[in-house]
Write a structure and sequence with these properties.
alpha+beta; 19% strand; 2 helices; globular; tt1808, chain A; 3-stranded antiparallel β-sheet; two-stranded antiparallel sheet; single chain
Length: 120
């Protein structure tokens, strides 16, 4: 037995099948439903975006921007910081952000949160 080994069940979905506005992220081709945020979540995102955007070293800051580091992966951190994405490229932002902020909340699935952190 190999300790701390996680077996991944790869699903059939690809990031290019998810449309802007769909409430899904993908992890290894498996869809993850993302519920709309409530007042507290929206407020934290707004404040976090304002604070990070005020840093002159933050070249680009996005809220709930979709990143696709590979075809079966699509993740949208609450706040992302990185280089300015290529505006000529259609679809999701390729790769991962230099910094991803994900607010944890009561009732959030800890295993899924850890998976998202590892994927970003």
């Amino acid at each position: 037995m190999i300790p701390n080994t996680k077996f991944i069940n790869y699903g059939p979905f690809r990031a290019d099948q998810i449309k802007d506005g769909d409430r899904y992220e993908l992890s290894h081709g498996n869809p993850i439903y993302c519920m709309p945020g409530g007042q507290e979540h929206a407020n934290r995102n707004s404040i976090g975006d304002a604070v990070i955007s005020s840093d002159p070293d933050a070249e680009w800051v996005g809220v709930d921007a979709g990143f696709a580091p590979e075809p079966g992966m699509l993740r949208a951190p609450d706040i992302a910081v990185g280089a300015i994405p290529d505006s000529q490229e259609k679809g999701w932002i390729k790769g991962v952000p230099a910094l991803a902020v994900e607010y944890a909340s009561v009732g959030q699935d800890e295993t899924e949160l850890q998976d998202k952190i590892a994927e970003l």
